[in-house]
Write a structure and sequence with these properties.
alpha/beta; Dihydrodipicolinate Reductase, domain 2; 2 domains; 9-stranded mixed β-sheet; 9 helices; 16 strands; 30% helix; elongated
């Protein structure tokens, strides 16, 4: 851990900017040095909370006490602000999505390389309990060969009515929740390559940007991963659902433990059929405890402050950022393939290969 706290300025004091400010106040490695926002009301709010404010981005970048800049603006400003900060010698942490195209991302990465500064993106959903539990199940191998994974968030309040509903600002749910769920799926399936991508975007409450989508990732060896976001769903499907040749796992919602069911005896005798008004079935009859074993994975206790600790250690040259440039590229390529598939109305090939291994995050598994 770094010996001294790093001074950070938040550019964009909206919802996520305020979230970071609250976490900085509790951090052992970063200190909120101030904020900058083009909205006078946001500036006045920060001042009323005793937070230092800057009159311009140029003033932020000229302050020698600023070690890094956190960019929490609408998405289209991420690239120009990040490049300006890197050129001024500041380390940069961007909110997601890091930017709006892989070409823009390469320019940002190039700027970081020339400045010899750390540049990363805030993928805080790597600390979500539901994700960490499903990652544990996948890596345990207890379900045999994993054949499918479903990851989704369903809500019923429509797409946010602010800039996230506008294309010019980089709105839409693929850029909003989608990038999180894509990043999580890449973190879970770390041992296979994606062969093709199929995506259909919804436009139920908004015709300018996607207000939901269904994205299928087709992996080698037959695994299919479904990533789904909906903003018009009044009944939600499970948060995570995984199937394998020897069992299944489910997390119903973000507050639940993970339930795992594995088969211990395929040859069940005297199956009691399910009788319905239209007939009976043994094939779909539920199994009992004689042939299956059920257990729960308890919710872990992750500490999102580990993200800041890692970022500071990366600034000090002690370790690599948890979210690397190659991982940012890979997430961006998947999003671009999703948009291309939606436009084509058909699956598109995914030629990119992983050149990184498992995500480097702390192990938060709990004893069962």
């Amino acid at each position: 851990m770094s010996a001294t706290k790093k001074n950070g300025v938040i550019v964009g004091y909206g919802h996520m900017g305020g979230w970071h400010a609250n976490h900085y106040a509790k951090s052992d490695v970063v200190r909120l040095h101030g904020i900058y926002d083009i909205d006078p009301q946001k500036t006045a709010l920060a001042q009323s909370q005793g937070i230092r404010t800057y009159a311009s981005l140029e003033e932020v970048l000229a302050d020698p006490q600023v070690d890094f800049v956190l960019i929490a603006t609408p998405n289209e400003f991420h690239k120009p602000y990040a490049i300006a900060a890197l050129q001024a010698g500041k380390h940069v942490l961007s909110e997601k999505p890091v930017t709006l195209s892989s070409q823009d991302l390469e320019e940002m990465i190039d700027a970081a390389g020339r400045a010899h500064r750390i540049f990363s993106v805030h993928q805080n959903r790597r600390w979500d309990c539901d994700y960490l539990m499903m990652k544990q199940v996948y890596e345990s191998g207890e379900m045999g060969e994993v054949t499918s994974i479903e990851s989704r968030y369903h809500g019923s309040r429509g797409i946010p009515g602010d800039w996230r509903a506008q294309k010019e600002h980089g709105g839409g749910m693929i850029y909003d929740w989608g990038v999180h769920l894509i990043d999580q799926m890449v973190g879970i399936v770390s041992d296979r390559e994606i062969l093709s991508v199929f995506c259909h975007c919804n436009h139920i409450t908004n015709f300018e940007v996607d207000d939901g989508f269904k994205l299928d990732l087709f992996y080698e060896d037959g695994l299919v991963a479904r990533i789904e976001v909906g903003t018009s769903n009044f009944i939600s499907l499970p948060r995570f659902y995984m199937t394998g040749t020897n069992g299944g796992a489910i997390v119903d919602n973000w507050q639940d433990n993970c339930r795992v069911v594995c088969c211990k005896n395929w040859d069940e005798k005297d199956v009691k059929p399910v009788v319905t008004p239209g007939g009976l079935t043994r094939t779909m009859a539920p199994r009992d405890e004689k042939t299956i074993a059920t257990h729960e994975i308890l919710r872990p206790t992750p500490d999102v402050h580990d993200y800041y600790r890692n970022f500071v250690r990366a600034m000090d040259g002690i370790e690599e950022p948890y979210v690397t440039h190659d991982q940012m590229r890979y997430d961006m390529w998947i999003m671009e393939a999703a948009f291309a598939s939606d436009r084509a109305g058909a699956p598109v090939p995914f030629p990119h290969k992983r050149n990184f291994g498992r995500y480097a995050v702390p192990d938060y598994r709990r004893e069962e």
